[in-house]
Design goal:
Layout lengths: L1 H22 L7 H8 L1 H11 L9 H26 L6 H14 L1
Length: 106
């Protein structure tokens, strides 16, 4: 059970990085901000159901923590990309591809 919980926590962390990146570029409490925070939740519920970890009380600190850490790390990555490359978008995937082109120009 501990291994499953760890794997699901890592998946949730990684899944939330793009959403945190997006969230950090929009106005707080706007529709886009609301979507960036809440769109991953149904996927997390499905992960909980299909992984058989269920909704036991001791799983909440791990999964909620990995959710918020993923959001926070995505926001941090956007800040770093902004410092390194200047103009960045709301999409981490687009910005990574663009940064590869800028890196080859150097």
């Amino acid at each position: 059970m501990a291994l499953k919980l760890t794997i699901i926590s890592v998946i949730i962390f990684i899944m939330n990085i793009p959403f945190g990146y997006w969230r950090s570029n929009v106005k707080k409490f706007s529709l886009q901000w609301f979507l960036a925070v809440h769109v991953p939740i149904p996927f997390i519920v499905l992960l909980r159901i299909y992984s058989d970890i269920g909704f036991v009380w001791y799983t909440y600190p791990f999964l909620v923590g990995s959710f918020f850490l993923g959001q926070r790390y995505g926001s941090y990555l956007r800040t770093r990309m902004l410092e390194l490359y200047g103009n960045v978008s709301s999409s981490i995937f687009t910005d990574i591809i663009r940064s590869q082109g800028k890196k080859s120009d150097r």
